[in-house]
Description:
The protein is α+β, with helices and mostly antiparallel strands. The chain is built from two helices and seven strands; from the N terminus they run H-E-H-E-E-E-E-E-E. The protein has helices at 2-15, 35-47; strands spanning 19-21, 51-58, 61-67, 76-80, 86-91, 96-97, 110-115. Strands 1-7-2-3-4-5-6 form a seven-stranded antiparallel β-sheet, with helices on both faces. It is globular.
Amino acid sequence: MKHAAIFTLFVLALAACSEQKISSDPWVNVCEDLTWLDAIKGTVKANGWPAEIYLTHYQDQRVFEVNACLNCADFPTTVHNCEGTVICEFGGLAGVNTCPDYGPGEDDKLLYWKND
């Protein structure tokens, strides 16, 4: 419960920023080369889309959950490994769900970057 309250306060503080990257958290250091993620962020920023990227777990590995356009019905959320390979995706107009067993709890997701 204590962690949930701290997490909520943390998320609210981040909501005040138009773009936020968390770099002091140990989760950030799980991957050596995030050039692919920088490219996604660049596209998001260039198009002015509100987006969120979370660090979490899936299939016993750290992964990035990328929602490149919040509230855009035609954009699926993608789950990437450290190399940038899409492991699975869900949502979008087609209702794709290639990872039906994916579903980290809110306590297991860390906001890595947000653009709103």
